[in-house]
Amino acid sequence: MSIAVLGAGAFGTALAISLAGKGAVTLWARDAQGMGQSRENTARLPGCPLPEGLFVTEDLAEAAKAQTLLAAVPMQKLRGFLRDHAAALDGKTIVACCKGIELNTGLGPVAVIREVLPHATAAILTGPSFAADIARGLPTALTLACADKTTCATLQQSLTTANLRLYRTADTVGAELGGALKNVVAIACGAAIGAGLGESARAAVMTRGFAEMQRLAAHHHADPVTLAGLSGFGDLTLTCTSTQSRNYRLGLALGRGEPFDSATTVEGAATARAVDALAHDNGLDLPITAAVAGLVENRLDVASAMKALLTRPLKEE
Ligand SMILES: NC(=O)C1=CN([C@@H]2O[C@H](COP(=O)(O)OP(=O)(O)OC[C@H]3O[C@@H](n4cnc5c(N)ncnc54)[C@H](O)[C@@H]3O)[C@@H](O)[C@H]2O)C=CC1
Ligand SMILES: O=C(CO)COP(=O)(O)O
């Protein structure tokens, strides 16, 4: 099966590097900036040479000739990207590789693909995976979700690599919610550590954040097993505990009262606002998400967010 990765950020490049280990792969870059010549993505993934078998192009129509297309652009850019290239992409198998909820619609990546490309088959690849780890050949395991079970099994075979072990599920909703929400919780955990609240506080925030992930997933009729898997619990533990995570680092900066580079891709910021709005509209109790939305919108500081969380009415676990 021919494969192209659309989007040459850190993650798209890392996936292309891993996939090129078992066959030819095309990487579409909006602005290749000499990547084809230097054989390195110096802007997003420095120090990771592009292997033979990885073909870089700025021509989307060329890349879209592949049977399977991995869409690795940030969540808030996904709809525009799909719309801009709908003629080339509709009818294809599109695997979303982004994590988040769209701000204006409350939809996840699979739902956005289905809305913009009604004839495409939509799937999502998500789970604990730092781009730099994947590109260096370090091993991890991911969730591959697609509602069509036959396509899911085929994709599982073709996207599994020497260092990426894929588990499959038909629960696309659970997979995309886990990947989206863990970033929100990671911002909260970073804020707790950044503000000096300690590792016990982080563990409490992670656990109650996971409860919020499960609550939102239940509202959307996702399978709780998916949330307990790689795309939910797995990615939550990684992202809430590592300074490799940009979401966690944004939280650290908020907790320390330090500035943060606004050009960095931090999916949890918009997702917190999107999910907070969803919670309000649907009467869902998601206090950590609300606190993160307040933090990223500068309506709240970490001390008042923590106080608000600690003084909520007492309840059963
Ligand atoms: N970096 C990582 O370790 C991981 C990232 N992801 C997910 O992958 C997605 C992308 O993240 P990264 O690659 O890390 O981001 P990045 O910041 O490294 O790169 C983003 C890329 O998207 C491109 N882009 C932005 N707007 C675009 C548009 N309208 N059309 C086409 N291309 C556009 C940029 O040119 C850039 O190459 C995010 O949803 C992230 O959560 C998932 C797992 C790991
Ligand atoms: O999703 C990721 C790891 O699985 C990457 O996390 P960040 O986007 O926070 O860097």
From TrEMBL:
Keyword NAD included in the entry's annotation: yes
Species of the source: Sulfitobacter pontiacus
Binding locations of sn-glycerol 3-phosphate: K99, G127, S129, K182, D235, S245, R246, N247
Signal peptide: none
Domain Glycerol-3-phosphate dehydrogenase NAD-dependent C-terminal, first and last residues per copy: 171-306
Start and end residues of each Glycerol-3-phosphate dehydrogenase NAD-dependent N-terminal domain: 2-151
Group of enzyme by EC: oxidoreductase
Residues holding NAD(+): G7, A8, G9, A10, F11, G12, A131, R246
Catalytic activity from the UniProt record: sn-glycerol 3-phosphate + NADP(+) = dihydroxyacetone phosphate + NADPH + H(+); sn-glycerol 3-phosphate + NAD(+) = dihydroxyacetone phosphate + NADH + H(+)
Pfam family, one: NAD_Gly3P_dh_N
Binding residues annotated for NADPH, in chain numbering: F11, R30, K99, A131, R246, V266, E267
Protein name: Glycerol-3-phosphate dehydrogenase [NAD(P)+]
Keyword match Glycoprotein: no
GO terms under cellular component: cytosol
Main location, first listed in the record: cytoplasm
Family: Belongs to the NAD-dependent glycerol-3-phosphate dehydrogenase family.
Binding site for substrate: K99, R246, N247
Compartments, as annotated in UniProt: Cytoplasm
The entry's keywords: Cytoplasm, Lipid biosynthesis, Lipid metabolism, NAD, NADP, Nucleotide-binding, Oxidoreductase, Phospholipid biosynthesis, Phospholipid metabolism
Enzyme Commission number(s) of this protein: 1.1.1.94
Gene: gpsA
PANTHER family: GLYCEROL-3-PHOSPHATE DEHYDROGENASE (PTHR11728), GLYCEROL-3-PHOSPHATE DEHYDROGENASE [NAD(+)] 2, CHLOROPLASTIC (PTHR11728:SF1)
Pathway(s) the chain acts in: Membrane lipid metabolism; glycerophospholipid metabolism
GO biological process: carbohydrate metabolic process; glycerol-3-phosphate biosynthetic process; glycerol-3-phosphate catabolic process; glycerophospholipid metabolic process; phospholipid biosynthetic process
Gene Ontology molecular function: any one: NAD binding
Catalytic residues, chain numbering: K182 (proton acceptor)
